[in-house]
Amino acid sequence: MRMLGAEAVIECLKAEEVEIVFGYPGGAVLTLYDALFKTNFPHVLTRHEQGAVHAADGYARATGKTGVCFATSGPGGTNLVTGIATAYMDSIPLVAITGQVGVSLIGKDSFQEADICGITTPITKHNYLVKKVQDLPRVIKEAFYIARTGRPGPVVIDISKDVFNDTLDFEYPDSVELRGYKPIFSGDASKIDLVVTELEKAKKPLLFIGGGVNISGTSEELRKFVESTGIPVITSLMGLGCIPCDSAQHLGMVGMHGTYAANMATMECDLLLGVGVRFDDRVTSLVKNFAPKAKIVHFDIDPAEVNKNVRSDFRVIGDLRWSLPLLAEKASMQGLQKWQQETGEWNKLVQEWKKEKPPASELEAAGIKPQAVIEKVSELTKGDAIIVTDVGQHQMWTAQSYTFKKQRSFLTSGGLGTMGYGLPAAIGAQITLPEKTVVLFTGDGSIMMNCQELATMADNGLPVKIIVMNNQVLGMVNQWQRMFYGKRYSHSSTKGCTDFVKLAEAMGVTGLCVTEPEKLDAILEKALKMEGPVLVEVLLPATEDVLPMVPPGGRLDQMVLGGVF
Amino acid sequence: MKYTLAVLVENRPGVLTHISGLISRRAFNIESIAAGPTEEADTTRITIGVEVEDEFELDQVVNQLSKLINVIKIINLTYVDSIQRELALIKVRANKANRSDLVDIVEIFRAKIVDVNRETLVIELTGEEAKIDALCEVLVDFGIIEIVRTGRIAVSRGPVPAKEM
Ligand SMILES: Cc1ncc(C[n+]2csc(CCOP(=O)(O)OP(=O)(O)O)c2C)c(N)n1
Fold first, then answer.
1. What 3-state DSSP class applies to A294?
2. pTM
3. Distance CA A37, CA A31 (A)
4. What number is the ipTM of this complex?
5. pLDDT digits (tens, 9 = 90+) for A103-129
6. Looking at the partner chain, which of B25, B69, B73 has a beta carbon nearest the beta carbon of A126?
7. Which residues of A are catalytic?
8. Phi-psi region of A258 (alpha: psi -120 to 50; beta: other; left: phi over 0)
9. Which of A305, A497, B26, B82 keeps 20 to 30 A from A406, CA to CA?
């Protein structure tokens, strides 16, 4: 069928079963927006392109589908950069379509021209500059295929303005032909036999779960394996939710702000099975002291992750959807009953660590305890909500204190640590899951980074519950200055003049405020019951720390515990 | 240690920048890089010389490069019996008095004089890097005006092409 390039883009999106696009218009994409109008294709207008890309990312994390966003050329495209990098670091499937100046103007510093392909090369799985309308269907087909297969990631398609206005005989290809890209699904099964042999020999095995489990949606397989073997589990920030936080084998998050039990178990284990993890430095601290007594096994879809940070003794390269069931099957054939007896001592030990040093939720401090806020929300939502955070102390408190129970229920910028991620990501999640309770925990610093999206939330009637943990400081920065910079609080106070309730009201969001501990529970309950979007500002003391903490470069068993332990 | 990689890539714009960018971004040191078309019109072959600490690091370079969508294949030629060559053009000062000395040197190195004028000579030499280094060193005494080198390319001995290794 003969149609405009812009119409072809919409046809491609339909063929890819895209439900919704987040974006912001401009000169270079006007024809594309005209096509959106004519086809009535679902689109959410955010108030900033960064909001659009984070919303697409939140949508992708919550659903497992590919998020899509649009932006115009030049400044529109550059506004996407932080969001693309965020998605790249956490392996989120995303397709960003940007407009580019007319073909004859490319490379001439034309008005609103930026080399988006050049700019995004290091933060995309792949990118394209489309200068010929005939290339559109193939490029879009490839882009979606690349974004969602293998290790997922963001793909940018930069399309010249001329291409949208040009016409083509539209035909969407059925398959892709990429000589250099053949994502693997299954790997070498004999490697799994080796792992099982190691498991049988191990006296102190430990499972380390990462974001790969969330991305591949394999938490069910993993749970079965954990239940049948009784192996204790630690998780990275990105792996939270894959194993219910309140299950006996779960020792909590590992690393800089990990639990006592998780960090001690890492130091003591003799076999560490890393599943869909990338051994980030926030987890390992100094690599040479990480799991010093253990043989390390690495399960990952991306061969480039192997030996990148931590050298592994055994590796199983392939999709977790292939390797995890096979591991469970092979392990159960090997008579795990006997093996469970042999590791009984180890399980007793980790349970003692778990009891002896609970997570730092019992700190004595005047005022509202941040953990109490999160625990109350956890109790009210019963682990059934989608929890979104920004970046800072509130993020770590949420990771430590919310009882996650389901995969894809925790949306947070782990790899890049992007302040401003939370609000738009919550929009992306809520819009596709209208029945779900979506709660955003944010800080007084973070919320300001994309607070314009409150308007998007209100205009779309999205009932997200926002909890601003207002300690009137850039808390995490403040904590580091307190601990490592002689309490020189250089530019880490937000001064506290902003009235978040009024800010919310100004944008069409109900605002509530809690200052007294006694009123906390009632207000949280009220907020969660209310219809429509609500922002609750909770006033917290400025000096609460995130503990335990492994000082940078320290060993995992050299945690600062603090509090009343 | 120094390693030689042959990288087969799709002949698309920007691929070379992608590759060199990725290697340098990851803090690996590129010693030389040479790219050119192959027997297949849609394939470019890039020969990369990298200097890395150990095999683990080399694996990282290879694994990271393999992730690029336009990279078709990477072959480590370091341990393969192979022929390595580089082309250099060297412009040196030359006058009546020392020109015959230069001609002798060029002969010994089996190089070629490809341009002569009253003050200078241009010498062309192909060979392994070490040989080119050696010639450059000898020519220093005459006064080198400029050197252009292509960076090394490599091909394995025997009938099997890199794309089938
Ligand atoms: C875009 C961006 N800029 C700067 C930082 C560095 N940073 C990390 S945490 C933090 C403070 C966050 O403050 P706030 O949002 O109030 O949360 P709190 O730590 O107080 O809970 C800062 C500035 C960052 N992560 N992201």
1. coil
2. 0.95
3. 10
4. 0.90
5. 999 999 999 999 999 999 999 999 999
6. B69
7. 49, 111-112, 161, 476
8. beta
9. A305
